[in-house]
From TrEMBL:
Residues 31-101 form the PAS domain. Keywords: Coiled coil, Phosphoprotein. It comes from Polyangium spumosum. Residues 11-41, 141-168 form a coiled coil. It holds the Pfam family PAS_4. SUPFAM superfamilies: PYP-like sensor domain (PAS domain), SpoIIaa-like. Residues 174-287 form the STAS domain. InterPro entries: Bact_StressResp_Reg, PAC, PAS, PAS-assoc_C, PAS-like_dom_sf, PAS_4, STAS_dom, STAS_dom_sf. This is PAS domain S-box protein. PANTHER family: RSBT ANTAGONIST PROTEIN RSBS-RELATED, RSBT CO-ANTAGONIST PROTEIN RSBRC. Gene3D superfamilies: PAS domain (3.30.450.20), STAS domain (3.30.750.24). Residues 105-157 form the PAC domain.
Length: 290
């Protein structure tokens, strides 16, 4: 019959199409299985949001990151898991990304774990578009960088402590205060003194006089290379401050240029001695007489 070959051919084509579809479905199921396995095995939290930033897919890794089940996150936005001030900050940074329909990388954000602790995430994503090319949301990953940020903060704290310790050591070296006898302190100044160092000298001198109940504080200028009007004026202010604390300040080893500056400033009431040794003898003698 003339129709039989056509029917056989149709049956053969249909069987071939069914076989092709069956094979395609098998490959799709295998791809889905592999993707599901990758999602389960990766250390990152994989997610998708729609155009309004509402979660439409959340991988199980959210349990490890924030303590929530995937179903608890669906229908919420990433901002719902952030402290209010952080949500405001991140939303402001996210607006231009959405407007540009652009991919983004390593956007740091702080989230609140279900148990209340803070978790720092690093978020990256790419925009999604539907078949008609309309923007439909983002797909991306979150990485937990809490431990890294804690380590960075600890390193910064230790660095800050080192800097403070160095500053304290430098201050002590810049303005050493030596007790040479009961009630007598000596501060030898070496090198150049600018206004900043002079301020430290004043602070150290007054603190030492107060702490040791000193009656004499000797500032030895023998090793001083240079000091301008402002520095000399600060040293004289230190002398007046020490006097208010019950101590007399002696300046020893005064160089001609420093003496000239003192004359120009019309400094009165600051006793001077030629050398440190004379200054110490004067102070000890005054204490014995007192």
């Amino acid at each position: 019959m003339p129709g039989k070959p056509d029917v056989a051919l149709l049956v053969e084509d249909t069987a071939g199409e069914l076989q092709r579809l069956h094979e395609e479905n098998r490959r799709l199921r295998e791809a889905e299985r592999r993707l599901s396995m990758l999602v389960e095995l990766t250390n990152d939290w994989i997610w998708e949001v729609d155009a309004k930033a509402v979660y439409t897919f959340v991988s199980p890794r959210i349990r490890d990151f924030l303590g929530y089940e995937p179903e608890e996150a669906l229908g919420k936005t990433p901002f719902d898991f952030m402290p209010p001030e952080e949500a405001t900050r991140v939303a402001a940074a996210f607006v231009p990304i959405v407007e540009a329909r652009a991919p983004f990388r390593d956007l740091e954000n702080v989230n609140v774990h279900k148990d209340g602790r803070r978790v720092v995430l690093e978020t990256s994503g790419v925009p999604l578009f539907d078949e008609e090319g309309r923007f439909s949301g983002f797909r991306g990953v979150d990485r937990d960088i809490t431990k890294r940020k804690q380590a960075e903060a600890e390193r910064a704290r230790m660095q800050e402590e080192i800097i403070h310790a160095q500053e304290r050591m430098l201050a002590e070296l810049e303005s050493p205060l030596l007790p040479v006898a009961e009630g007598v302190l000596v501060m030898p100044l070496i090198g150049s003194v600018d206004k900043r160092r002079a301020g430290r000298i004043v602070d150290a001198l007054l603190a030492g006089v107060s702490a040791r109940a000193a009656t004499f504080a000797i500032i030895d200028l023998t090793g001083l290379r240079a000091a301008d009007h402002a520095v000399v004026e600060l040293l004289c202010e230190a002398a007046r401050g020490a006097r208010l604390l019950g101590a007399e300040v002696l300046l020893t080893g005064v160089r001609p240029e420093v003496a000239r500056t003192m004359v120009e400033l019309d400094v009165n009431g600051v006793r001077t001695q030629s050398t440190l040794a004379q200054g110490i003898r004067f102070a000890l003698g005054a204490r014995r007489r007192g």
